[in-house]
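We modelled the chain as a single entity of 352 amino acids. Its sequence is:
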Amino acid sequence: MTKDSPLVSVIVPNYNHDQFLKQRLESIEKQTYKNIELILLDDCSTDNSQQILKEWVWNRPNIRLVINENNSGSPFAQWNKGMLHARGEYVWIAESDDTCKPDFLDALVRILEDNRDACLAFCQSILIDKDDNALHSFNEHYRFVFKTDRWERDFCADAQRECWQYMMLHNTIPNASAVLFRREDLNKVLPVDEDFKLNGDWYFYVRLLSESQKFCFTAQPLNYFRYHSQTQRVSARNKTHAFFEIIRIQNFIYKKFPFATDQFVQARRQCAYWWIGNVNGTSLLKKELLKEHLRLYRHFSPYFKYFWWRIVWHFIFISIRRVLKFMGLIKPMKRLRTKFFPGKYFEPELPE
């Protein structure tokens, strides 16, 4: 890239990720695309993050470090703060526990330069664990949820159609670190909604796509999305707020595209299946969560006949699973499942 290449604002929001922070910063420094500004944010970390960030800023030009005196309580508050500081034509939110290949920015900047009506470009991601071991490509996830090979090749597509045809059912941009935004389009939908605890990125993408013409995807696996015990998705297990957020996102899309009734009903039913899969005895023993579960039941039951029976069957299933676990048969059963369903996506389990 020449010195006339557009400036990219790289925002690194961090909270207690000292274990991964140096690797993330090194992955940014090694980018073959050099016309960047780096904005480092720390949300009042209690680990060694701030020391790492201060050492990194020392004697490096074009880097700003902003440390919160108090924790914001929302990762999306940090997104907003970073974008207020950003001056670039393009914006990359490089999550502090992820990493990427050196040509990540080169590839995505080139795509957006070649497609001036695209609001964002994103790449295929590889899921990795805390020790950098590759778990699987997100293409497996796409094939499992959507039953299509669409994400096996590069494409640019209609942004609004993406909302009602795909985003209604599931977030098709699973990791912010994989995305390069066009700042001009971002300005139309900022700020990011800070009320969301988990799915604020999904809601933000939907708002952006619903106001845009086109977006682009490359099947090159340039991004590594880390899955570990500290991720928001793991911490949200056995809680209810994520499902209320999904319901809100589905309602927003349906209001924007009221003709997509079939997709809306399918999405509502899919969300209900996810909710049933997360209901367990532990969460039901908590009074405040029991009330929330009853609210979710009332949301989902109109879309099913005999909805209660599906919940009963789930409890029968998890009871059988606990017996198998007690007998030490879970791992053999998983190997058998993999043998009978080769290549099928199953979400990885973290060590207990």
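As a brief sanity check on the tokenised model: The longest helix spans residues 307-326. DSSP finds 15 helices and ten strands in the chain.
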